[in-house]
Amino acid sequence: MFAHNAFAKNAFAKNAFVKNTLLLALLSGLSLPLQADPLTVYGKINVTAQNSDEGEGSFSELKSNASRFGLKGDYALDGELTLVYQLEWEVDPSDEANEKNIKARDQFIGIKGSFGTIKAGRNDTALKLSQGKMDLFNDYEADIKTLWRGENRMSNSLAYVSPSFNGFSLQVSHVMEDSAKGQDGQSVALMYGDDGLKDSAIFASIAMDNDISGYDTSRAFVQTKLAGFKLGAGVQQQEPVAGGAKDDGWLANVAYPIEKYELKAQFQTLEEHEGYSLGADYKLGKDTKLFAWYSSFDFDNKADSDYLAIGLEHKF
Question: Distance between alpha carbon 233 and the CA centroid of its chain, in Å?
């Protein structure tokens, strides 16, 4: 009996040791690639508590603003080539906990070399990327897509990004029709400078869509710093491919940092539609900020809308 108990205890100890060893090995195997260059895990959580009025009375809501996580990396290949990839998903920590909670964003595989970068998959179009960091209220209610067409992320697309030549770079998107009755679309953008305005005094771009999501669109942006202010302006023209009137709009914004704060304002139009936003960000840390904003839209063809929000963002 004693020998049996001793054997059982010894077997249990060995089994526990094996399990712990396997668990440690598994965790080590998972953690090591995350620290290596070929794989980076990243993301952000951005949530606002806001009061919204879209014409039928005001209501309170908790809203996720393009919160996301993803994997990206690059691998050295032969011939001075590099394989690049990205898999990114949008998540909504404020809403339903089911399949609607996760939505695909940019996801691609590509090759990078002295010629530039070629990517295949689901990509933001060249015209969308041409805005750089111009939109001071990106992903919020006052995102420029509220009034303007062209903020497209397209499946079945090939994207090319050129190397920088004296500050200039070219981006081209080709969207495949994916059906016998479809029509290929193209998006092209020429950009100059650093969109963060750290390596250049000015950022400027001009871009055009041909038959992307049913629209032909062209836009231009310019942004610079003056006496501590960050000033930006843009213009856009859009026209339905199936026929219809051309719509023109313009945008102007300003941002001003004060220690840990950044104050900002933006005004945007499209024909008779217009909207403005006022906001302030406060840095709580390198990757974390507290913010508040107010946005108001005056639409010509539907009820006006107003939003007041306070939120928190953390990037990782």
Answer: 20
